[in-house]
Amino acid sequence: MDFIIIILFIILISALMITAYVPYELHSLAKKAGFSKFSLRFLILKLQKIPIKYLFEQYEKIVDNKIDIEFDELKKYWGSNPENFETTVKLIINGGKSNLKITTEDIENFNLSENNSERFFSVLKKTNNENLNLSQEKILELVNSDMDIEKYFEIAGQAKEIQLDISRNRLDQNDLQETELFIKNFIKAEKTGISKEHKLLNDSKISWKEKNQLLNSLILIKQKDIDISDDELSEVYKSGINSYEYIKSVDTVQRNNIPDLDKTKITNHYFKGGDVFRVINAFEFAKANNTQISVNDLLELDLNRDINFDITIDQAVIPFDLTVNPPIDIVLKDGLQISPNISVSVKKKININSLISYEKNLFYKINEKFSDELLKFKSHTEVLKNLKSISENVLNDLKTEKTESYHNTFEILKIKVTDIEIKADKLAEIKDIQAKEKEAEAKLKLLKSKKKFNEDMAKALKKGKISFKDYQKEKYIFNTEDENDLPYHNLK
């Protein structure tokens, strides 16, 4: 029995050795992969139905390029991702040529392909050379972005010199330019005592563009000695207000001594979506042109989206002319009709009431007062001699009537007659019309009398009070030659 067991054991061992024997043609490949001529590992590969020769050949390519990687790691990757296996081998070899050790795990983690591998190797190599501690996420971000890699590492080197870590912030091409600008600004800022550890500048959630805005704000505060605390600046920034514009507006208000405009009003106006600089510029423009406009009115006007701010300010500061419509027609005592073209020079008032236009009210009042003034004169020649005084009288009357609605909209500066039309003798024309009307009335009376006479004659004939011969004779007692010229001749 023992002998049989020994025989069986020998047979089993022999079978295993035969099965585990590496074929002669694979000896050199197997040796590079760490296999001996008789190998249980080789037997296991056969049992797993793995393409052993193919794996040995791919592994040989890696070993020949002096890249240190375990065969089992490569075999494991083939088992999980056979369709990308050859590409993976190429990437490992290309990494080795760039003096970078790339594992199959790296290829999976960084989602490497032939298309992005060259960029990946460039990023990884520069990261190592610059001794930058970039996270896997940051490397991936750089690899998958369209950023100028050379420029990025140039700026990263500049940041390293001032001990500024730029790796924590998100980056795109625009951010890259803002980062470079931040470094330049920060070198200047350090001289004013601003630290890179400032809580706002050190916030990784804030973009480089926003940090530049905050850094410029801090520099301006220091340079101009503006009374704004870090907490106030932080509140302004967190509210979404452009902090640099805010600081500049506070500085401008303080330097120019603009009344009724303090930090609280500036902050509130920005919170409401207003433009403080537009208000400041409008105030200074009005002041330079000797026009007084309330800052509070300007703040209110700036927030009104239904009007054009710039046009309204221009009209409030620079006088402009309005043509009075419709023009009036006045018949003077000398019978002539005159029609003056009247122009009124005004400025627009800036207040809540000025948003409603009272042009028609103003035109009506001007026409009314001009009519009163013109009717004081007997002839058109007198009117022409006194046009200036007439205009001045109308202007003075308008200014004294402070309760009129148009005073809410306009400041009336000047009234003038730009042209005057003198028409035909209206009195003669009127008299002619009246004479014709009287003539028509007389003819109408004649026609009615004739009709009445004819009716009476017809009745008398019927009653026998008159003979037919006499009727025919008396019938033409009225002249009917112009009968058709009479009004209402259909009354016959």
Would you mind describing this structure in some detail?
- There is one protein chain.
- The protein has 492 residues and is α+β, with helices and mostly antiparallel strands.
- Among the domains are: 1-49, no CATH class; 320-427, Tetrahydropterin Synthase, Chain A (2-Layer Sandwich), CATH 3.30.479.30; 439-491.
- Helices cover 59% and strands 7% of the residues.
- The protein has 23 helices and four strands.
- It has helices at 2-19, 27-32, 40-47, 52-64, 71-80, 85-97, 104-109, 114-129, 136-144, 149-161, 173-190, 208-224, 230-238, 243-256, 263-271, 276-288, 295-302, 309-317, 359-374, 380-385, 387-400, 426-462, 468-475; strands at residues 320-323, 330-331, 336-348, 410-425.
- Strands 1, 2, 3 and 4 form a four-stranded antiparallel β-sheet that branches.
- Strand 2 (330-331) and strand 3 (336-348) form a beta hairpin.
- The longest helix has 37 residues, at 426-462.
- The radius of gyration is 53 Å and the shape is elongated.
- The relative contact order is 0.04.
- Residues 479-483 and 485-492 have low confidence and may be disordered.
Summarize the structure.
This protein is α+β, with helices and mostly antiparallel strands and 492 residues long. The protein is built from 23 helices and 4 strands. Helix content is 59%, strand content 7%.
What's the tally of helices? 23
- CATH 2nd-level architecture of the domain at 320-427: 2-Layer Sandwich
Strand content: 5-15%
Q: Main sheet, how many strands, which sense, barrel?
A: 4 strands, antiparallel
Low-confidence stretches: 479-483, 485-492
Category from helices, strands and their pairing = alpha+beta
The N- and C-terminal alpha carbons lie at a distance of: 164 Å
Mean pLDDT: 78
Radius of gyration equals 53 Å
* CATH homology superfamily of the domain at 320-427: Band 7 domain
Q: Order of SSEs, N→C? A: HHHHHHHHHHHHHHHHHHEEEHHHEHH
In terms of quaternary structure, the protein is single chain
CATH topology of the domain at 320-427: Tetrahydropterin Synthase, Chain A
What sort of overall outline do the alpha carbons produce when their principal axes are compared?
Answer: elongated
Residue share in helix: 55-70%
Name of the top-level CATH class of the domain at 320-427 = Alpha Beta
Number of strands: 4
